[in-house]
């Protein structure tokens, strides 16, 4: 059956015919998140390591999707289409796709869940969430609040699992005929595995995969604004977000001033330490593998002629702590400009012309976010239209919010989350033709 769990009506469940009720329970879930913001943030810092202030920010962001989709639940409109035959009338209905399997990463242990689940529940679907093995606690805490919000048992389900179990659990979720939809956020490599699994039963899929965000600073830019944007876009969550800048492209006329001010800002404003310490802006990386990747990218770049302006090595605190790093004299031959680093490394490539910068930016096989700084309106339009990405920040380094569509092009994924488009990922379109009238 396409809808193994009653998706409309019955059993006094969340999926009641009363949209108002679905909406109200999502809204209550949102309110409970905000009422418990401090505790939820502490869970994130404990399991992920990010600074408490960032964790509090994540909870506000995370909860905003429940609030947004509580509202969107009431705007699932169909259509009446003028028919070409006199004796026909044509309707379009929107129906929930059914059970959605939701597989999420560790970098936003709460928000990556609500961004999907808010939309799914608003549409009338039920969900099975498999959180990342490093961060299962936020997913379970959300479950407790879902219960308190009156979301019926069986609607929001969580299946935490160990690293050894991940592949097997993932395979069940992505191949079982009872599951109609897969929504995944994570690496492109894992996304491709899940797409292959999904093919067997032709499931609907949404994929939010890796990025390789360019951050272009043109000669016309306001350099102080660019430095502030660079700091936020690169070092948030210690560089561990899919929309974090991965490569800086800086035009030759502004290059030296930008590098000098950026290095100063890094040294003055970034503090590595325990996420629970109020001064900390940079927590540890998620695990040893993540640290090794940053080290590998730095070693490769330096061996090919890059210069370390600041940072460059493991932090004296040990474990998974790493120094925020800035490299110059970087070329497109270096690993750090070819693949996602997912860590606190800022490589700077110097360029001469706009066309050159756009060509370097678009050479990637992924296209999630892209940023650029310019004060020239014609250039702003040209570059915004030419960048092969799903999201563009013009003179802004942080651009995601509930009302805006999040997603990428190329190998960065399929579909959009948040915004008025996000709910479509969980809805089927059904055309109904009334004949013989
Ligand atoms: P990362 O390398 O950053 O951990 P992944 O894409 O591997 O990114 O992880 C994102 C999510 O995908 C996590 O929940 C992880 O458990 C899950 N995952 C990883 N491999 C598989 C797999 N083979 N099947 C299903 N889920 C998987």
Describe the 3D structure.
- InterPro entries: Ald_DH/histidinol_DH, Ald_DH_C, Ald_DH_CS_CYS, Ald_DH_N, Aldehyde_DH_dom, Aldehyde_DH_Superfamily, Succ_semiAld_DH.
- Its EC number is 1.2.1.24.
- One of its GO terms (cellular component) is mitochondrion.
- Belongs to the aldehyde dehydrogenase family.
- This protein is α/β, with parallel strands linked by helices and 437 residues long.
- The protein is 38% helix and 19% strand.
- The protein is globular and about 75 Å long.
- Helix 2 packs across helix 3.
- The strands form four sheets. A seven-stranded mixed β-sheet has the order 10-11-12-9-8-14-15, sandwiched between helices. Strands 5-4-3-6-7-17 form a six-stranded mixed β-sheet, sandwiched between helices. Strands 1-2-18 form a three-stranded antiparallel β-sheet, with no helix packed on it.
- The protein has two domains: 17-209 and 412-434, Aldehyde Dehydrogenase, Chain A, domain 1; 213-394, Aldehyde Dehydrogenase, Chain A, domain 2, CATH 3.40.309.
- It is built from twelve helices and 18 strands.
- The model is unreliable at 1-16 (pLDDT under 50).
- The structure holds adenosine-5'-diphosphate (ADP).
- Residues 103-105, 130, 132-133, 166-167, 170, 186-187, 190, 193-194 line the site of adenosine-5'-diphosphate (ADP).
């Amino acid at each position: 059956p396409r809808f193994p769990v009653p998706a409309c009506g019955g059993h006094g469940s969340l999926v009641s015919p009363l949209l108002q009720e679905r909406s109200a329970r999502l809204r209550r879930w949102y309110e409970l998140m905000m009422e418990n913001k401090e505790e939820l943030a502490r869970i994130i810092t404990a399991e992920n390591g990010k600074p408490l202030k960032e964790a509090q920010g994540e909870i506000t962001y995370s909860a905003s999707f429940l609030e947004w989709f509580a509202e969107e639940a009431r705007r699932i409109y169909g259509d009446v289409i003028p028919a070409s035959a006199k004796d026909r009338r044509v309707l379009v209905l929107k129906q929930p796709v059914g059970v959605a399997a939701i597989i999420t990463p560790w970098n936003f242990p709460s928000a990556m869940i609500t961004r999907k689940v808010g939309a799914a529940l608003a549409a009338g679907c039920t969900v099975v969430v498999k959180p990342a093995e490093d961060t299962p606690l936020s997913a379970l805490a959300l479950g407790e609040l879902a219960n308190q919000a009156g979301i019926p048992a069986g609607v929001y389900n969580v299946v935490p699992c160990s690293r050894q179990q991940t592949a097997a659990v993932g395979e069940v979720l992505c191949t079982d005929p009872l599951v109609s939809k897969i929504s995944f956020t994570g690496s492109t490599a894992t996304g491709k595995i899940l797409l292959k699994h999904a093919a067997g039963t032709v499931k609907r899929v949404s994929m939010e995969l890796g990025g390789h965000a360019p951050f272009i600073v043109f000669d016309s830019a306001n350099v102080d604004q660019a430095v502030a944007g660079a700091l936020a876009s690169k070092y948030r969550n210690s560089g561990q977000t899919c929309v974090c800048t991965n490569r800086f492209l800086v035009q030759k006329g502004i290059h030296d001033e930008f590098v000098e001010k950026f290095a100063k800002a890094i040294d003055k404003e970034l503090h590595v330490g325990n996420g629970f310490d109020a001064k900390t802006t940079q927590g540890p990386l998620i695990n040893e593998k993540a640290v090794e990747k940053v080290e590998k990218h730095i070693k490769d770049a330096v061996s090919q002629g890059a210069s370390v302006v600041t940072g460059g090595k493991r932090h004296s605190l040990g474990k998974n702590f790493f120094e925020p790093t800035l490299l110059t004299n970087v070329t497109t031959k270096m690993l750090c400009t070819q693949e996602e680093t997912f860590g606190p490394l800022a490589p700077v490539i110097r360029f001469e012309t706009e066309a050159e910068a756009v060509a370097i930016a678009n050479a990637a096989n992924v296209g999630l976010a892209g940023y650029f700084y310019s004060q020239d309106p014609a250039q702003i339009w040209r570059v915004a239209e030419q960048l092969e990405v799903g999201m563009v920040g013009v003179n802004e380094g942080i651009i995601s919010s509930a009302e805006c569509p999040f997603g990428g092009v190329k190998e960065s994924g399929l579909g959009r989350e948040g915004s008025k488009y996000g709910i479509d990922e969980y809805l089927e379109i059904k055309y109904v033709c009334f004949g013989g009238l």
